[in-house]
Amino acid sequence: MQITLNNLVKTYSGATGATDVHAVSNVSLSIPSNSVYGIIGKSGAGKSTLVRLISLLEKPDSGEVFYGDKRVDTLDGKDLIAQRRRIGMIFQSFNLFASRTAAKNIAYPLEICKTPRAEINKRVAELLDLVGLADKADAAVSQLSGGQKQRIAIARSLAVNPQILFCDEATSALDPQTTRSILSLIRDIQKKMQLTVVMITHQMEVVRDACDYVAVLDSGAVVEQGTVSEIFTHPKTAVTKDFLANLTQNIPDTASDVSSGEASIVRWSQEGGKYTLRFVNQMTGEPVLSRMAHLYPVEFNIRAGGIQHIASGDVGTLITDITGSPEALSGALQYLKSQGVIIEEK
Ligand code: ADP
């Protein structure tokens, strides 16, 4: 199910005397069907407001929301309820019923739709299996770990066979390892059920590990959008570069972390690092730097480096200093560009 947003606007009036808050200002996006689409932004950027508009929890002041060819922001009453039942949602806080078992939580949306009991039981068993928790059917919610709670919440959101799944900071309360397993489950389910997944996050790691496309939201507006590899290799705005820089810094800095798959960038010197070089996909195996030093009288010093695996391929990153005469340096950088290396200069 493709989602199209045309010029969405949502403004909240401020408290008496305060200025209005332009939570979402003129957002237009095309979210392709059968993909995972990330919406990343800092706290207060407008992500939650935008997701409430796209998921029909709130109406925009102006603009349009389409699911496929159908305009949905204008739906009301029964039609709105029916449409909303076809949407899956998961949240940071899981929102499970503490008084119900795992299986009964998954059954809840089916009970609301008055599905026959035998059918509910069959569907719940399938869903528990799908999220890898067949043995937890009768567990109380309080006995489940955070990751298990989110798996149950995912199963519940899929009970009604939605075409769209919204994930609002779904992994923000989880540790890195559990985050990875939940993201990989969401990707598997997306493929299996051909869902359109909209993933709201403030973490570039989530975009890197789970998304095909991403839009960067800042002060209520989309400042950048594209495929994840485009955004990783050609970040245009300061906001996006900031997210990518934080991604690098957040990463543990020992070689053992790399071999355990924990880290993708190792920094062995906090100094220097004027040039960030990015190598995409097959280029990550090429000895371009040593060729550059053979061709031009320059020296290079690598400050940090590694390979980041994104959903659509690999991006190699080297943070380097390159020194030499101005002509040699310019020739060397030209050479790197001609080899497809993407260069960011500090
Ligand atoms: P994010 O999810 O990116 O943190 P939000 O969408 O929650 O951002 O908020 C965007 C802006 O809109 C913030 O300035 C927030 O204070 C404001 N805002 C969000 N919801 C409301 C509301 N119901 N009433 C008034 N202001 C709101």
TrEMBL record:
SUPFAM superfamilies: ACT-like, P-loop containing nucleoside triphosphate hydrolases. Gene3D superfamilies: 3.30.70.260, P-loop containing nucleotide triphosphate hydrolases. GO terms for molecular function: ATP binding; ATP hydrolysis activity. Signal peptide: none annotated. Keywords: Amino-acid transport, ATP-binding, Cell membrane, Membrane, Nucleotide-binding, Translocase, Transport. Pfam families: ABC_tran (PF00005), NIL (PF09383). One of its GO terms (biological process) is amino acid transport. Residues 3-244 form the ABC transporter domain. This is Methionine ABC transporter ATP-binding protein. The keyword Oxidoreductase does not apply. InterPro entries: AAA+_ATPase, ABC_transporter-like_ATP-bd, ABC_transporter-like_CS, ACT-like_dom_sf, MetN_ABC, MetN_ABC_transporter-like, NIL_domain, P-loop_NTPase. CDD domains: ABC_MetN_methionine_transporter.
